[in-house]
Specification:
heterodimer, A: 309 residues, TolA/TonB C-terminal domain, 3 domains, three-stranded antiparallel β-sheet, 9 helices, B: alpha+beta, 5 helices, 5 strands
Chain lengths: 309, 101
């Protein structure tokens, strides 16, 4: 086995014909780097073996993953064979154990290294959160306060007073009265006022003299309500009051048909009242103004009331 | 932690590597072949191969080819030793019948 491992020029020659792609180059560098971290007696063997197995791989991801795996394998192998060399109790693996006598790679176990890495990562994240990715701060310090010693107190001068304004009195004289625009015609007895009333404005009529008005109503010979009491209403015992509007001329005659001003609520009573109002034409007492009969319209109430038997 | 057989820690990954050889114990397999059969990553497989070789379960040799003629580098081939085969068979047989308490 040692004979094989000593042929250090073999690995480079064996893989020379491999495709010189970038991923293969990176993987080869990883493998070579990992192999050189292996115990000295295993370096050449592992490098050649891993490069040969790398050549059988296809795909960028597979090759890179293989190279990274070799890096990890080196650490495990170094730890395993460091422990084995210290123990020296494996007879069958003697050839391998004798081959390397490098430093003790098992100073930190894989678990310890992982734990330290995790702690460092957390500390870093915590520090970043504390500082907020802030760079070194530049503190701009202001100059320290300086005390000024005043030798002698300055006497404050009183403020200069404002100059007193000088008022000048001007007598404006008497205010002229408003100009009434009076025009004096040649005839001194006639005065014409400029602000005359426009001719299109009608003159206000003279206030009417008070009129003593006496509203008319049923007069002498007006028919009796009993004669015009609707018989049906009498039988039913209905009674009521209707208001009738009438227009009467100075002779006491109706100038238009009477109209129902306010209903009694009973149709038969209302009809009887209108008949009575029509029948009373010529017997109305006309409305008078200052004692003189005039034509006028007015309303009067007609009551139909059952008489006690 | 796995069961220890001598100085070899029998872990699940070790069993998977052994299983790749037990398909045909007389075969000589390279690390790439074992990786294809077992699905183990290189970071796990190669320490196991070296560990089992140190413990005498495997022997290894370089492939006898001409790299220029073959068009590829020579590989390191592993093969189960008779003692390794016996131990591996015994371990797998113990899984078949159950592990005694």
């Amino acid at each position: 086995m040692r004979g094989h491992s000593l042929r250090t020029d073999e690995p480079a020659r064996n893989v020379r014909h491999a495709a010189a792609t970038w991923d293969l180059g990176v993987a080869r560098r990883l493998v070579s780097h990992a192999a050189h971290k292996a115990p000295p007696g295993l370096r050449d063997r592992l490098e050649e073996e891993w490069l040969a197995d790398l050549a059988a791989r296809r795909g960028t991801f597979s090759r890179i993953r293989f190279g990274l795996g070799c890096c990890w394998a080196t650490r495990v192998i170094a730890r395993d064979f460091g422990v084995a060399a210290a123990a020296g109790n494996s007879a069958s693996g003697q050839s391998l154990l004798v081959a390397h006598g490098g430093p003790d790679f098992s100073r930190f176990s894989r678990r310890t290294v992982s734990l330290i890495a995790i702690v460092c990562l957390h500390v870093g994240i915590f520090y970043i959160y504390l500082t907020g990715f802030a760079g070194p701060r530049v503190v701009d310090r202001a100059d320290p306060l300086k005390g000024i010693v005043i030798d002698r107190p300055h006497r404050l001068h009183p403020p200069t007073p404002f100059p007193q304004p000088k008022f000048t009195h001007t007598f404006l004289g008497a205010v002229p009265p408003p100009d009434p625009r009076l025009e004096f015609p040649a005839d001194p007895t006639t005065i014409t006022v400029a602000r005359a009333i426009p001719p299109d404005v009608p003159l206000k009529p003279a206030p009417p003299t008070p009129v003593r008005r006496v509203i008319g109503g049923p007069g002498a010979g007006f028919p009796d309500t009993e004669d015009y009491y609707p018989p049906a209403a009498r039988r039913l015992g209905e009674a009521g009051i209707a208001v009738v509007n009438v227009c009467v001329d100075p002779q006491g005659r109706l100038t238009s048909a009477p109209a129902l001003g306010e209903s009694s609520g009973i149709r038969m009573i209302d009809e009887g009242a209108l008949r009575l109002a029509r029948a009373g034409s010529g017997h109305y007492r006309p409305t008078t103004e200052n004692g003189r009969p005039v034509s006028a319209c007015y309303a009067f109430r007609i009551r139909f009331q059952l008489q006690d038997p | 932690m796995g069961k220890r057989d001598g100085d070899v820690r029998i872990s699940l990954q070790t069993l998977r590597a052994l299983e790749a050889f037990l398909e045909n114990p007389s075969d000589e397999l390279s690390g790439a072949d074992v990786q294809k059969r077992s699905g183990l990553a290189s970071g796990t497989l190669y320490p196991i191969l070296l560990r089992l070789e140190s413990a005498g379960w495997f022997v290894s040799r370089w492939e006898t080819i001409d790299p220029v003629t073959a068009g590829r580098p020579r590989r390191r081939l592993y093969r189960l030793t008779p003692s390794g085969l016996a131990r591996a068979s015994e371990i797998f047989a113990s899984f078949s019948r159950g592990v005694p308490a």
